[in-house]
Amino acid sequence: MNKLYSKLFIVLVLAFAIGGCKVDAPVYPEGTVSTVGKPKPATGTDNGTGTGTNPGTGTGTNPGTGTGTNPGTGTNPGTGTGTNPGTGTNPGTGTGTNPGTGTENTGDGLPVGATNTIQIRYTAGGAIKTYKNNVSITALMGFITVGAIESQSSIITFGLTDTAVGTYDLFALQTENYYMDPLSIGKVKVTESSFNQSTGKGTIKGTFSLDMTDGTTTYKHVLGSFNISK
């Protein structure tokens, strides 16, 4: 038993002896700084020592050295030969006029033919058709009707408002194939007259001018004349 206590005593003494041992810190010469346990300072430089420059040393220029100019060397407005406004005229320089320069319809027509005939020509330089059978003139309530009947298929008739010398509107001239263009104004010109509307006797001569149509084609400046004696 005593041997056991002796061994425990020796173990405890050794434990305290070892725990009390402490390694002293090393002693350095005066002025020396210890780096033990401290991070090493970087050995590089701050801002790198590279050869690049800021701004770069490239050969480009700002603005560029191109040959273009700003603004361009063109002209504004352009040097084209056009003009603004254009050289045309407004309204246009056409030969038309307003009102038109067309010849006024005076009723002048073909030369007066033989007694008791009515003549008509549909186109300039064309043939003249002559009506000479059953030529008549009637007056009713101031309206005068002139006509002739060559046959059942060949007739002419037209109207006017007076038998005295003068120029009047021409009404409803019609032949076997043609009739007065409703969009035109025909005229009749009495050149000589001794006709008495009350008695239905006397002589009347004159001419006429109008546009006619066959329903498809319009014939401009159809001319005619009449010479009637009763």
Pick out its properties.
230 residues; mainly beta; Lipocalin; ten-stranded antiparallel β-sheet; signal; DUF4352 domain-containing protein; single chain
Description:
The protein is mostly beta strands and about 230 residues long. It has a domain at about 115-230: Lipocalin, CATH 2.40.128. The protein has one helix and ten strands. Strands 1, 2, 3, 4, 5, 6, 7, 8, 9 and 10 form a ten-stranded antiparallel sheet that branches. The relative contact order is 0.13.
Strand-and-helix sequence, N→C? Answer: HEEEEEEEEEE
State the helical fraction: under 10%
Number of helices: 1
* Cα Rg: 65 Å
What would you say the CATH architecture of one domain is?
A: Beta Barrel
Query: What fold name stands as the CATH topology of one domain?
Result: Lipocalin
**How many strands, which pairing sense, and closed or not: the largest β-sheet?**
10 strands, antiparallel
Q: Which percent band covers the strand fraction?
A: 25-35%
Shape designation: elongated
* Distance between the amino and carboxyl termini: 195 Å
Catalogue the unreliable spans: none
**CATH class type of one domain:** Mainly Beta
Q: Which class do the helix and strand fractions yield?
A: mainly beta
What's the total number of strands?
10
Overall mean pLDDT: 77
